[in-house]
Amino acid sequence: xxxxxxxxxxxxxxxxxxxxxxxxxxxxxxxxxxxxxxxxxxxxxxxxxxxxxxxxxxxxxxxxxxxxxxxxxxxxxxxxxxxxxxxxxxxxxxxxxxxxxxxxxxxxxxxxxxxxxxxxxxxxxxxxxxxxxxxxxxxxxxxxxxxxxxxxxxxxxxxxxxxxxxxxxxxxxxxxxxxxxxxxxxxxxxxxxxxxxxxxxxxxxxxxxxxxxxxxxxxxxxxxxxxxx
Length: 229
What we know:
Blueprint: H1 3-11, H2 17-33, E1 42-43, H3 45-51, H4 56-68, E2 72-75, E3 79-82, H5 87-111, H6 114-131, H7 144-156, H8 160-174, H9 184-202, H10 206-228
Helix pairs in contact: 2-4, 5-7, 5-8, 5-9, 5-10, 6-7, 6-9, 9-10
């Protein structure tokens, strides 16, 4: 064993296993969401342990967290496997999203601060400027503007449980279904719907805010499912 090997062998215990498992969970999550680990692929514990230079304990803890977040499935017969992106799973995801984001919009209409309101208005104005060609658009898995709009409303709900369910659990899953079809007409429609939701929120009309948000998500659900078929 070389001096480097001895040093490498001593490096892992310096980091608490809980911290190591947390870091590994984040790395594996990003690898799945970025497509580096393909959907539906089987996960080999020995290969992952070697690739990330970790022992089986932290690895299994990280895999358990991935299972809790519904990014992988585990069974006695097939072991660990990344989930498949199916129309059925997407439909279930959007059904839950519609209810949760409707509640977030309702709560934001009551609890939104001046800072939240100003930030949300800026997000909408940026989107509208991008559509008019006045400002370049920054693309991401979900679309930066769309992501920022929904994240801001979730945060403005002031409900920690709701924020966790949406921002930490549901929104990452949506990245598995990212659309590569950049349709300008659909983006314009989305911008109009965002403006209607915003207007209801700043009017403190909780019922209208929830209704507009649920309609917006229901419409997106149809488009996303059609894109998968």
